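Project outcomes to date are best conveyed with an example. Our students and postdoctoral researchers have been running inverse folding experiments weekly, and each run begins with a structure described purely in C-alpha cells. The record below, which covers 537 residues, was selected by the lab manager from last quarter's runs and is presented without edits.
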C-alpha cells in the first residue's frame, strides 16, 4: 500500500484547477483563435494543488527527467515557481497572434508601470537581464554609435557597488565590460563618484537598509552627481508605493518567476522613463548589445497577467496557508525522540514566507540531516527541501529546513509522511570507511593540473602538515584561496573557498598520494566535476 495514498487529487481535478484558466482581463480574454482551447474553473483558495503522477508518465519522465516536489524555494536551478493559471492562459493566447514588439512593449510597460508605481517599465528575460540592459542604458544611452561599440568603447566605464552588495548576480553589470568600483563607506562613495561613473548598483537586503551605505543615503548622494542608482530587488514582493523608488532609486529590477509567479524566463525593469526606454532600445529585437536577451510576446503578456494578479491576490491568506502546511509537517514529527522544531521568519521582502527547521540527534534516530535530504531527493515522489545538516561520525546533531513558498496544497501531507518515514524507518547507514595506516607526508609545493570538461587549468598548492591535518594555499591562474583538509593513510581531501568577484568557488579535492605524485577528482559545486593530477617539486 502506498505511503502517500489519498494525498493527491485526481488527474481530472488537477486539470480543472491547474490548466489554462479563462482570463479576467482584456489582455487574457479568450479570442476566436483559441475558442476551443481547454479552460478551467475559477481556482479555489490555493493557487495550485499537488500534481498527480509526478513520477508517472508525463512529458518529463518520458525524456528521463524526474519532476520534484519543491519544498526548497524559488531557486532557478529547480525552475523557480509554478506560474499562475492566468499566466499560462495569457501565454497560450499570445502564442496565437503576431504583433509588433515595438508596439507591444510600450503598451505592456505602461500598464505594468502604473500597477507597480513607476514612471516606466519593460519586460526582460529575468532580473539579471534587467541589470544588464539597465547598465548598458546608463553607459551608452540610446546613441546607436555608442551602443554598437559596446562593450569596448565607453564614455562612462565604471559602476560603483557597495561591498555589502557584491553578489553572484552582479555579473549582469560585469558582463557589460565596465570596471567595478567597490566602496565601503560614505566617504569612499563620494570620492569615487565621477564623470566615469555610469551607475551605482545596490542589492536590496537587510545590509542595505541601514547605515551610511543604505539605499536612501546612496540615492541621495548619487543624485548630487546625477548618477543613476539601480536596486536589485529580484526576489522581493513589489509593494506599492514602491519602497525603492520612494527612497530615490532611479531603476529597480524584479524577477518575474519568483513571488509574482509569472513566466520563469521573465523579469521587470522599472524606473526613470528615458533610461527604461533606452534599455529597451538596447535589448532584443533591436540589433544592439542586448540582442541575445530576447523576450517574446508570450513572456510579455504572461508577465502582465502576473503583475495584474499580484495586486488581486490575498497575500495574508497565502501566508496563513503556508504556515498551516508547516504546522501539519511539524505535527507529524513532533514527539519523536530528540526532535525539536523552530520557525524561521523572513528578514525582509525577499522570499517572504515562514520556514520550519526540524532538529534531531542522529545518534538516536539513526539518520543524519544530509542523509535524510539525500533520501528525500532519491525517493518517490522526489522531494527537495531547503537544507540539511549532520555528518557521520562526528557531527550527529542534525536538521533540515522546509520552505513552503512554492509547495502546492496537498504536498504538505506527502512531505510530512516522507520525513516521518525517514526518521522512524531510516534503514542502515554506515560510518564512512577511514583508510588505515600512518598518514603519508604531503608537505611541500605541488604543481597541479586540472582537466575540466573542456580545457586544462594549472594551479599551485603549498601545503603544511601536522599529523593528519593539512593547511596551505591554493594559487590558481587568477585567484588565490586557503586550503585545509585531512590525510588518512594515502588518501587526501582538501577544501577551499576561493573568493572571486561577487561570488565564491568551493573546491573539494579528493585523491590518493603516491610518493611525490597525487591524483583524484575535484568537485566544484554548480561548476561541475573534474580530474586532477599533481607533482611535488
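After processing, the design step wrote out the following sequence:
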Amino acid at each position: 500500500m502506498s505511503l502517500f495514498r489519498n494525498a493527491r487529487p485526481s488527474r481530472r481535478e488537477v486539470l480543472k484547477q491547474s490548466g489554462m484558466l479563462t482570463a479576467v482581463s482584456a489582455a487574457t480574454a479568450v479570442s476566436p483563435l483559441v475558442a476551443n482551447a481547454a479552460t478551467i474553473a475559477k481556482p479555489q483558495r490555493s493557487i495550485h494543488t499537488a500534481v498527480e503522477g509526478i513520477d508517472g508518465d508525463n512529458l518529463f519522465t518520458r525524456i528521463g527527467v524526474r519532476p520534484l516536489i519543491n519544498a526548497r524555494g524559488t531557486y532557478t536551478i529547480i525552475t523557480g515557481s509554478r506560474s499562475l493559471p492566468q499566466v499560462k492562459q495569457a501565454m497560450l493566447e499570445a502564442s496565437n497572434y503576431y504583433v509588433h514588439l515595438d508596439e507591444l512593449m510600450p503598451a505592456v510597460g505602461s500598464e505594468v508601470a502604473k500597477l507597480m508605481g513607476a514612471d516606466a517599465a519593460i519586460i526582460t528575460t529575468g532580473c539579471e537581464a534587467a541589470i544588464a540592459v539597465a547598465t548598458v542604458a546608463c553607459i551608452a544611452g540610446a546613441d546607436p554609435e555608442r551602443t554598437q561599440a559596446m562593450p569596448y568603447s565607453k564614455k562612462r566605464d565604471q559602476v560603483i557597488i557597495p561591498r555589502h552588495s557584491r553578489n553572484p548576480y552582479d555579473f549582469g553589470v560585469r558582463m557589460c565590460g565596465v570596471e567595478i568600483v567597490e566602496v565601503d563607506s560614505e566617504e569612499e562613495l563620494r570620492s569615487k563618484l565621477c564623470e566615469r561613473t555610469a551607475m551605482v548598483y545596490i542589492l536590496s537586503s537587510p545590509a542595505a537598509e541601514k547605515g551610511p551605505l543604505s539605499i536612501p543615503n546612496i540615492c541621495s548622494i548619487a543624485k548630487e552627481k546625477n548618477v543613476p542608482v539601480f536596486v536589485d530587488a529580484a526576489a522581493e514582493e513589489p509593494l506599492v508605493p514602491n519602497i525603492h523608488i520612494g527612497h530615490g532609486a532611479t531603476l529597480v529590477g524584479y524577477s518575474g518567476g519568483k513571488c509574482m509567479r509569472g513566466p520563469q524566463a521573465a523579469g521587470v525593469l522599472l524606473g526613470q522613463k528615458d533610461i527604461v526606454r533606452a534599455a529597451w532600445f538596447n535589448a532584443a529585437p533591436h540589433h544592439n548589445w542586448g540582442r541575445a536577451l530576447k523576450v517574446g510576446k508570450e513572456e510579455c503578456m504572461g508577465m502582465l497577467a502576473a503583475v495584474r494578479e499580484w495586486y488581486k491576490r490575498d497575500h495574508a491568506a497565502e501566508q496563513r496557508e503556508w504556515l498551516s502546511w508547516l504546522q501539519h509537517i511539524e505535527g507529524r514529527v513532533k514527539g519523536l525522540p530528540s526532535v525539536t522544531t523552530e520557525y524561521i521568519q523572513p528578514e525582509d521582502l525577499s522570499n517572504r514566507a515562514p520556514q520550519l527547521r526540524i532538529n534531531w540527534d542522529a545518534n538516536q534516530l539513526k539518520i543524519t540531516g544530509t542523509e535524510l535530504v539525500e533520501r528525500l531527493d532519491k525517493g518517490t515522489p522526489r522531494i527537495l527541501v531547503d537544507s540539511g545538516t549532520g555528518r557521520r561520525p562526528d557531527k550527529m546533531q542534525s536538521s533540515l529546513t522546509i520552505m513552503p513558498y512554492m509547495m502546492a496544497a496537498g504536498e504538505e501531507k506527502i512531505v510530512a509522511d516522507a520525513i516521518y518515514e525517514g526518521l522512524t524507518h531510516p534503514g542502515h547507514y554506515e560510518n564512512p570507511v577511514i583508510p588505515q595506516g600512518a598518514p603519508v607526508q604531503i608537505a611541500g609545493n605541488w604543481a597541479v593540473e586540472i582537466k575540466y570538461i573542456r580545457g586544462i587549468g594549472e594551479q599551485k598548492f603549498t601545503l603544511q602538515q601536522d599529523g593528519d591535518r593539512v593547511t596551505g594555499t591554493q594559487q590558481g591562474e587568477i585567484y588565490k584561496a586557503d586550503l585545509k583538509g585531512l590525510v588518512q593513510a594515502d588518501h587526501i581531501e582538501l577544501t577551499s573557498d576561493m573568493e572571486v568577484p561577487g561570488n565564491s568557488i568551493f573546491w573539494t579535492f579528493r585523491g590518493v598520494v603516491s610518493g611525490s605524485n597525487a591524483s583524484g577528482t575535484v568537485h566544484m559545486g554548480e561548476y561541475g566535476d573534474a580530474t586532477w593530477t599533481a607533482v611535488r617539486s
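The first helix runs from residue 11 to 18. The chain has three domains: 90-310, 315-424, 444-536. The training component of this project remains on track.
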